[in-house]
Amino acid sequence: MAQIQAIKGFADQFPAQSRLFEMMEATAREVFPRYGFGELRTPLMEYTDLFCRGIGTETDVVQKEMYCIPDSKGRSMSLRPEATAGVMRAYIESGVHAREAVSRFFTIGPMFRHERPQKGRMRQFHQINCECLGPKEPEADAEIICMMMEFLGRLGLRNLTLQINSLGCSSCRPVYRRNLHDWLANLDQSKLCEDCRRRMETNPLRVLDCKVPACKELTADAPVILDNECPDCRAHFEAVLRHLDAEKIPYEINHRLVRGLDYYTRTTWEVVSNEIGSQGSVAGGGRYDGLVEQLGGPSVPGIGFACGMERLALLLEGRELPAVSPDFYVAVLDDSCRDAAFALAQSLRREGFSGTLGYESRSMKATMRQAGKSGARYTLIMGTNELASGTVIIKNMESGEQREVPCADVAAGLNAEK
């Protein structure tokens, strides 16, 4: 019978890697609540229309990358390709906006995009997302960027670059789009890739995001959106930068930074690393003041960001995490001791100790070899003599010292050894 393999782009996480993810999640749950954020858990699957309306039909995500599944009534459902649209749906449907002037949520979990798997980019990937709904002031933009950079710093990441831009608003961006379209129309269209020729008509800003070297070179002198912004957008962006300067958070203004999703307005940013190859973006976000209304809710401003956990894991590879060693290993020398050994292991776990039980009765030599492989700090040896006397031998695996104690005193003996 043929062996069943994992689906391409879907990876297993064994303990060595899952511990990195646990560390990231624990850091998020430590940092974000100090800024008033609480965890929200949304479904992995939503109606496809949510993402079409929320992300934009002209994005690569909607056009090429979603996993869509029809239900029994013929309605299209999709595995979530990103988290923000689902958070907005939950926010609107639950009526939170009517109860809270400002709502702050973070989410942690898997996303799904059907794209070519490569290092740091999988078809099932994991993100940490933060969304702040309600405030329109630039202080909210600066605060959430500060929180993101603190989170990344707490992970121990240093060689990162914060790139930032402003995409304008519904008043000034249409003017820039027209100017950009007219400028692009004067280029030699045959030198643009097929995607850029299409995007030029549907969403000219996405041309600036093209990664094809020939397109980047051809559009190097494209009009800059910051030169076309209205006074309010310019003042908003200047205030964000002023707060970042005050907090001594370095940044670079990237005029080509438009992000991959259509809902962004005003402040937008990415955090990039040059240590993980072509997939250098490890976090990014921006303001999306019209998204809640676009999805059928009230006119509520919003801002948020996402961190790609697989890409963060690449940066954390080789990082020494605190050793996780079990407290005990119960070594069973004779089958007659197995019931007592099982009961001992359970009683120690109830006392808060961690450890494993040697299921198979072995010789002393084989038992100690297995105990060493377990990584436990103490081996609890139980044979026929110990069973008869109601005792256990506690062996310190580091020093090699051992002593015999009554079964009832094993927990106290382990505590005394600490």
From TrEMBL:
- Name the chain's protein: Histidine--tRNA ligase
Signal peptide region: none
Q: Which GO terms describe its molecular function?
A: ATP binding; histidine-tRNA ligase activity
Q: Which reaction is the catalytic activity of this chain? A: tRNA(His) + L-histidine + ATP = L-histidyl-tRNA(His) + AMP + diphosphate + H(+)
Q: What is its EC number?
A: 6.1.1.21
Question: Which gene specifies this protein's sequence?
Answer: hisS
Q: Where in the cell is it found?
A: Cytoplasm
Instruction: List GO BP terms, alphabetically.
Output: histidyl-tRNA aminoacylation
Q: How does it assemble?
A: Homodimer.
Of the GO CC terms on this record, one is: cytoplasm
